[in-house]
Every structure is written in C-alpha cells, then in structure tokens.
TrEMBL record, chain A:
Gene: rnfB
Known EC number: 7.-.-.-
Cofactor: binding details: Binds 3 [4Fe-4S] clusters.
Quaternary structure, from the entry: The complex is composed of six subunits: RnfA, RnfB, RnfC, RnfD, RnfE and RnfG.
Name of the protein this chain belongs to: Ion-translocating oxidoreductase complex subunit B
A UniProt-annotated Pfam family: FeS
Organism: Vogesella alkaliphila
Purpose: Part of a membrane-bound complex that couples electron transfer with translocation of ions across the membrane.
Family: Belongs to the 4Fe4S bacterial-type ferredoxin family. RnfB subfamily.
UniProtKB/TrEMBL annotation, chain B:
Keyword entries, A-Z: 4Fe-4S, Cell inner membrane, Cell membrane, Electron transport, Iron, Iron-sulfur, Membrane, Metal-binding, Repeat, Translocase, Transport
Residue ranges constituting the 4Fe-4S ferredoxin-type domain according to the UniProt record: 359-388, 398-427
Lineage: Bacteria, Pseudomonadati, Pseudomonadota, Betaproteobacteria, Neisseriales
Signal sequence bounds: none
Protein name (database record): Ion-translocating oxidoreductase complex subunit C
Biological role stated in the UniProt entry: Part of a membrane-bound complex that couples electron transfer with translocation of ions across the membrane.
Length: 191, 600
C-alpha cells in the first residue's frame, strides 16, 4: 500500500515539476509575433501600394497568415510572388483575377517640377517618404527610394506626376536569356 | 625542378598565337581624340575632377576613384578636355557610359612624375596608397584594383608565395608573351616592388610552355632577383588565378575564401609591369599592350593609350573585308563589341576580328544529351549540364546550390559540347538574374524600413501634437483658475506663486519616488525638509480646496477628489475645463452655422 502511495506521490511530484518547467518556458520563451507573418512579409515586394486593399504589405501578410485573404492580391509581386506564397502557405497557385489589378512593369514616379504647385499632398501620400519638398515649394521624388506604388498620382491636384520605367544602366543591365534569333526570311512567305 | 600539380578538366584548343606573337610590340600612333571611360574597374565609375575646356598634361588625374572597388583615371596624353558625356563603351550591353573626351595636342607633355624612389623603405600600406592614386588595376581581364589585392588581410603573414601569372592560356592572345620577351627586366622590377609590399617569401612566375622565348627572357631577368620561373603545361584555362595557384603550389583555394588566407597571392605580368612603371617611374596606368588579331592582314601587338578609339586601333592591322564582328578578349571568354567607336579600356587585352571564314557560325544548339563531356572539361569540377538545366528552367535557387557562382565562365564546357549549346550564356543569364533578385530584395528591405519608420514618425507626431495641445490647455486653464480665484478673493495667490508651489511639489514627489525615506529617519535636516514639504503640501491642499470651492461657486464642474499627486489633478482639471470650453465653443459655432444656413 505504501509503495503505491509513494509511486502516486512521486508521479504527482514529477507532473508538478514538469508542469512548472513547461509553464515557465511558455512564459519565458513566448514568441511574441507570429513568425509566419514575417515569412510572408519577406516575400511581399514592400511597395506598400495597397492594391491588395490592405494599408500596406504587413497588414496583407497578417491577413494571409490568418487565412482571411487570397494569395493572388499582390500585382507588384507578380506570379512569382504568388508561387512563393502558395509554396509557403501550402495552398494551390492561383492566377490574378481577370478584373483585378494586373502586374505591370516597374516604374518610378517623376514630378514635373514646372507644374508642381507645392501642395504637399503627394508627400503625405507617399508610404516610404520618398518625396521631398515643403509647402509652396517644388517637390521631387527620390528615385532610388521610390517603390512605384502610384499612391502619389491620385492626390495630385494638378496631375504633374508621371510613372516612368527606370533607365537601362550598366549597374542594372542583365544578360538576356539565350535564344535563337529569329529572322524574317521573306515577308511574302507568310501571306 | 619543383613538382607541379594539375587541375581537373581543361581543354586544348588550337593556340593561334603565332600570328601576333612574331613581331615586336609597336607603338600605336597618337589618336587625335580619346574617349577615356570613367568605369575602368569592376567598381563604381570614377568621378571626373576636370572641367570641359581644361588643358591637362599627360598622366594628370582626370577622375578620382569613387568607392572601394573604383579606380582613378588619368589623362593618357596632354590635350584639352572637350566633352564629358556618355560615349559608346566596350561592354556586352552596348549601353553608353560616361567618358572624358580628350583632344590631344600632340605634345605628349608629361605632368611632373613623382616616383617612389625609396619604396624599399616604405611600408606595404604606403605603396598600396600610391598604387591606388596611380589607378592600377588587374590587367589580366578582371580589372580588380591592385591596391586592394595588396591590402587584403594576410592569413599567413608574411605571405608565403607570390604567384605571377604569365600563363596567357587563351588562344590568339599574345600581349603578355611579347611583354615578357621584350620587357622582362621591367617586369621583374615590378615584381620586386610587389613582393616588398606583400613581404612574400618566394615568387613563382608561371608561364605556359608554349612560350619558350618568354620563359628564357624571364629566366634571364629573374635570376638576379631570385624569382622562380616555372614552365607549366599548356592547357586552357591554366591562366585562371585559382588554376595557376593550384598548378604551382598544389593549393586548391576553396569557395568563398581569398587566396591570401592560404598564403598565396596572384598578379598578372602586365599588372606587375604597370606597378613597376608607377612606383619606379611615377607613370600612372595610361596605356596597355593590346593584341590585334584574327581576320586581319598583319596581326600584331601594339602599345596603345587608354581611350584610343578601337576602330583606329583595328585600322593599324587592316581587318579582312569579310570580317563581320570584333570580340574584346579571347575567343573563349571575350564578348562581341557592340560599337567600335568605344575607347580602349584597361581591361582590353585583345581585339579579335571575326570573319565567317575564320570563325564559322556556331551551328544551332541541339538538346542536351547528358554526355558529361562538359563535366570532365570543367576546371572547377562543377556539373555544367545540371547548371544548364537549372538556368534554362530559371530554377535559380537550385543553380546556386550547385555552386553556379564558382563558375569562372572560361567557356571550356561550351567548347566541348557536342550539342553546341552556348552553356556560358546560360550561366551568365542565371548569374545576372540572381544579382537582380538580390537588388530587388535589398530595395524591398529598404522600402520596409522606410515604411516602418514613416509609421513610427506619424505616431510620434500625433502623440507630440496631443501633448502640446494638452499643455497649452492646461496653462490656459491654470490662468483662468487663477483669475477666478483672484476675483473671488479667497486665496490671494498669483500665477507665479502657484506655479512655483506646483513645481516644488513635483520635485518633492520625484525625490520621494527616487529615494523613499524611511519613516523613522533621524537626520535633523531631512526631518526639517520633510516638515517643510508636509507644510507646503498642506498649504497647497488648502489653497486647492479653496480654488475648487471658488470654481464650484462660479458654476464650473468641480474637480475630481484630490489624490496623492496634486500636479496631475490640476492638469486633469485643466484639461476637463478646456474640453468643456471647446465643447461649448463648438456648440455655439454649430448654432451659429445652423442659424446662418438658409432653409432648404
């Protein structure tokens, strides 16, 4: 009888001890943020453009982590981005919706400095503080910081902001995919 | 005879060096106009430090280095700067690049040359800085700034072996061969300087055994210095730095590790020649020897000024009529020049004229049959067929796992491929895509940081504004309360007095919090202080109560019951008062607007 009691007491003690350790560990080593959100956020292109109808990339990442939104809402990420999200979240690849915004070539905002009236509306709209200027002074876009989100286009009262594709330079030049050049043999043959 | 080692793979293409190596080096005539590109190294383009219209002397600094991997640029001859504008550039992209256009005056007037006569007494660091000013870059093809190779942190100190690369393994090229035959003494002087800067124990000069005259000349010159001249078996690409180090020392430099960490450093013969000219004669790098060969009448090596238009150089050797393109570099690693108006760069060791007769067009690529010939030819023991597969499928992660970045783009795999697949083109494509992805990732990280900071900034501004408004309201309320109490004549305390008391209380509270005094403190001074504080608090409480009474009397909402912190209470009361006033004002304004608005 006493052996049984000792065994029960021992097990109880052990359970309490382990429970205390586990309890302490769960408090001490608590993961504050959802690590999945960070992983999703790392895939998103950080244009902060809001085309996913969330106010920025991180809120979209949070919505994806919670499963409350689709993975095909990020046009700047392109289909590659959807593929990466599908792989990370273990869901099927989903193309962009037919009537949803489609991916387009990267571009950088340019303010026509002659037309700019210095209203600061674009400065307030820029999600990455890439526009420099002051009230009633000319504004300009810091091209290297511009994410091409187009959020500055709508607020401009004089429509002086254009999106221009970045110029080709040696620093961003890429070798082309090796292809066999196709030559037009004769224009009559195809008719 | 020292034992030599071998590297895996390699090929034996027809050498075709005799066409250009038979005749001595000629001086190219002085061109009337030079286009000196500002991007003369693998780093940033240099920053011009002359203006249009400036008269410059030969050897004068015209653009200074911008950043670590950048190289200084000097005027190749005396003349007038006529333009600083984008010009055609010797690069596979065909994109124009900023260049300084110099109209030569034909005088070849040198700037005052200042050689480092006492280099033997100078430290490696001093020589390094000197070479950086002289714009010396690796002339073997990589154009890596030489001073950085001298300045790398040495793993084994002093350096065990200094390898001098005279292998020149690529077909058709013979500029290093001619340089070694004709200027062996000057090369050895340069080696002596380099060896002193690196404090290297031994010097090994590796030369492929298809250049017997060069070996003989170098042996004669090196004997006095005690440098070892080693004839290495002819095999492409033995002129790769890691390959030559392996042949001479048996050391295989691992991926991602610098050769210096294994006690070896490698310089090209043309580079050490330039180092010698700079240190002993004070001449910056303004000219180089170029092999002009291929489908030409009289292949030759010429010494040309940097910036000489390439078409003028080619005119010296009279290209065949059927020549259709010109390659800079050799037939295996070179690239087709998009525009021959470009000026010669420091990287330009060879101009190879191609004609359909001499270089029949490559047959169309067939499918990979996985024969493995490329793998046995690869000098870095990669699996070229797998890399090709991954690059073709744009599976770049996998290509990187298969060590794509260890590929030296030597072209041995493309050369042996029975299916005629342009393998190196695929690797270059994959590499530049990976670099582009890296740039995008960095840009995304920057955007994330900036966005997060913006959000933090907005929050902070909002909080600061609220704080400012609250403070203002509190002050206004305090003034109002003071005037009220003065009117009621209950407590004749004026504003400054009240503020002083409040401040004193705050100080006391802070002190209490910082160092809570024990109840039974015996120090007389502290007791006195405590008593004073208590008295002050009592006075303040009394005055406050009076003020509250007054307020209540004047129809304002009474302040909440006093708690331990008098200052906060006052503030709260003030805020409440301000809010009430604001509400009243708003109501009044609304009323006024309603009255103003015409009935619909």
């Amino acid at each position: 009888m006493s052996q049984l009691l000792i065994a029960v007491a021992l097990m109880l003690l052990l359970a309490l001890l382990l429970g205390a350790i586990l309890g302490y560990a769960s408090v001490r080593f608590r993961v504050k943020a959802d690590p999945l959100v960070d992983k999703i956020d790392a895939i998103l292109p950080q244009t902060q453009c809001g085309q996913c109808s969330h106010p920025g990339c991180r809120p979209y990442a949070e919505a994806l982590a919670a499963g409350s939104d689709d993975i095909n809402k990020c046009p700047p990420g392109g289909e590659d981005g959807i593929r990466k999200l599908a792989e990370l979240l273990g869901v099927e690849f989903k193309p962009f919706g037919a009537d949803a915004p489609q991916p387009k070539a990267k571009a950088v905002a340019l303010i026509d400095e002659a037309t700019c009236i210095g209203c600061t509306l674009c400065i307030q709209a820029c999600p990455v503080d890439a526009i420099l200027g002051a009230a009633k002074q000319m504004h300009t876009v810091i091209a290297s910081e511009c994410t091409g989100c187009e959020l500055c286009l709508a607020p401009c009262p004089v429509d002086c902001i254009r999106m221009i594709p970045p110029g080709s330079e040696l620093t961003n030049w890429k070798w082309r995919y090796p292809t066999i050049p196709i030559r037009n043999v004769s224009s009559g043959a195809t008719r | 005879m020292m034992p030599l080692f071998d590297f895996p793979g390699g090929i034996h293409p027809p050498e075709n060096k005799a066409q250009s190596s038979a005749t001595p080096i000629r001086q190219a005539p002085l061109p009337p106009q030079l286009h000196v590109a500002l991007r003369q190294s693998m780093g940033n383009a240099a920053r011009p430090c002359v203006a249009i219209g400036d008269r410059v002397a030969k050897g004068q600094l015209i653009a200074s280095a911008d950043g670590r991997l950048s190289a200084a640029v000097h005027a190749p001859t005396s003349g007038v700067v006529s333009a600083i504008a984008p010009q055609p550039f010797a690069h596979p992209s065909g994109l124009p690049e900023l260049a300084i256009t110099l109209d030569s005056d034909g005088e070849e007037r040198w700037i005052e040359r200042q050689p480092l006569h006492d280099w033997q007494q100078r430290s490696g660091a001093k020589i390094r800085d000197f070479l950086a000013q002289m714009g010396i870059v690796g002339l073997g093809g990589a154009v890596f700034p030489s001073h950085l190779k001298l300045g790398l942190k040495l793993g084994v100190s002093p350096l065990e072996t200094l390898v001098i690369n005279g292998a020149e393994c690529e077909p058709y090229i013979s500029c290093d061969d001619r340089l070694m035959r004709e200027r062996a003494d000057a090369i050895c002087d340069g080696i002596a300087v380099t060896r002193h800067a690196l404090q290297a124990r031994q010097v090994l000069i590796g030369i492929e055994d298809n250049k017997p005259q060069a070996i003989a000349a170098m042996q004669a010159a090196a004997a006095a210095h005690g440098f070892g001249v080693v004839a290495v078996p002819t095999k492409y690409p033995s002129g790769g730095a890691k390959q030559l180090i392996r042949i001479l020392t048996g050391k295989a430099i691992p991926h991602g590790v610098r050769a210096t960490e294994h006690g070896v450093q490698c310089f090209n013969v043309a580079t050490v020649y330039a180092i010698g000219r700079a240190v002993l004669h004070g001449e910056p790098l303004i000219s180089r020897i170029v092999t002009l060969t291929g489908a030409v009448e009289a292949a030759a090596n010429v010494e040309a000024l940097i910036g000489t238009p390439l078409d003028q150089l080619l005119a010296l050797v009279r290209p065949h009529r059927d020549s259709h393109e010109v390659v800079m570099g050799g037939p295996l690693m070179g690239f087709t020049l998009p525009d021959l108006a470009a000026g010669l760069t420091k990287a330009g060791n060879c101009l190879l004229v191609k004609s359909p007769a001499l270089f029949p067009p490559r047959p169309p690529a067939q499918a990979c049959i996985r024969c493995g010939d490329c793998a046995s030819a690869c000098p870095v023991s990669l699996q070229p067929m797998d890399l090709f597969w991954f690059a073709k499928a744009k599976n770049f992660d996998k290509a990187q796992q298969w060590q794509l970045f260890d590929c030296i783009e030597c072209g041995a795999c493309s050369y042996v491929c029975p299916s005629q697949i342009p393998l190196v083109d695929y690797y270059r494509f994959a590499k530049s895509e990976i670099w582009a992805a890296e740039r995008d990732k960095n840009a995304a990280n920057l955007a994330r940081q900036r966005h997060e900071f913006r959000q933090f900034r907005l929050q902070r501004d909002k909080a600061e504004k609220a704080q400012r408004l609250a403070d203002k309201a509190a002050q206004a309320a305090a003034r109002q309360a003071a005037s009220h109490s003065a009117a009621a004549n209950v407590a004749p305390a004026s504003d400054p007095k009240q503020a002083a008391i409040a401040a004193a209380m705050a100080r006391a509270a802070a002190q209490r919090e910082a160092a809570p005094l024990p109840e039974q403190h015996s120090s007389g001074l502290n007791d006195a202080k405590q008593a004073a504080i208590a008295a002050a608090m009592a006075r303040a409480a009394a005055r406050k109560a009076a003020a509250d009474e007054a307020k209540a009397a004047s129809g304002q909402p009474p302040a909440p019951p006093p708690s331990s912190s008098g200052l906060d209470d006052a503030k709260q009361a003030a805020i409440a008062a301000a809010m009430a006033r604001a509400a009243a004002r708003k109501a009044a304004a609304d009323q006024a607007r309603a009255n103003q608005q015409p009935d619909p």
